[in-house]
Every structure is written in C-alpha cells, then in structure tokens.
Specification:
Blueprint (H helix, E strand, L loop, with lengths): L2 H8 L3 H9 L6 E2 L5 E2 L3 H14 L4 H6 L1 H5 L3 H50 L1
Antiparallel strand pairs: 1-2
Length: 124
C-alpha cells in the first residue's frame, strides 16, 4: 500500500508517517520511482507507535523499542518492559513535580485571598 493508504487506515498524517521513517520507527520499501510502499503489518506498527506517543514516550525512546516490535521474543519483551518502566518512572516524577507546583500555587492563591479579605476589612 502507498503512504496515503497507510494514512487512511491509521489516521496518522502523511507527514507523521514520514517523520516515523526519519526516526527509524517505520521502514518502507521504495518503488523504482521512489514512492513508499508499506505492508499490512505496518498498520499495526503505526498504531503501536501512536499508542506509545499517546502514553508520553518520545520518538527517541520508541526507537529503542523498534527491535522489540520488529522481532518480538522473550528477551526483547524484557527489554521493552525495562524501557516502559523507565518511562513510567519519568512520568511519575513529572507528575510529582506538577503536583508540587500546583500546591505552591494554591498557597499563593490562599495568601492573595487573605490579603484581599484584609484589604476589604480595612476599607470598611
């Protein structure tokens, strides 16, 4: 199938599919005229890449998992699990940082409310 067909079947834009190729996440064959050609298994690969992206993984990290996707076996499944565990820890750290920032902002909001309440009493 050609890039437009793969785009239609996966919902990924042609630009995204070209980007996936640039990053090594997807490999196509080429016709003599240079057109990209994909096989049915590329549909599943694109959907998997999209799922990893939606889970917050970078294309670089997903590229580490290409061997796991291309030729799955027990060792590669363990490698994928390690990579996903590392990514989960990174996301958890980011979430913790955002929660701390939200708590600090909540404190500043409370201080501002207290200031405004005091200012209103002074005006009365």
């Amino acid at each position: 199938m050609r890039i437009g067909d793969l785009s239609a079947r996966t919902g990924a834009s042609r630009r995204s599919l070209r980007y996936y190729e640039e990053r090594g996440l997807l490999v196509s064959s080429r016709s003599p005229s240079g057109q990209r050609h994909y096989e049915d298994e590329h549909v599943q690969r694109v959907r998997l890449v999209q799922a990893f992206l939606a889970a917050g993984m970078s294309s670089g990290t997903i590229a580490e998992m290409v061997p796991c996707m291309a030729e799955p076996n027990e060792d590669r499944a363990r490698q994928a699990l390690e990579i996903m565990g590392r990514e989960r820890a990174r996301l958890s750290e980011a979430i913790d940082g955002l929660a701390a920032a939200r708590d600090a902002l909540d404190h500043l909001i409370e201080d501002n409310h207290a200031y405004l309440a005091g200012a209103a009493e002074d005006d009365s």
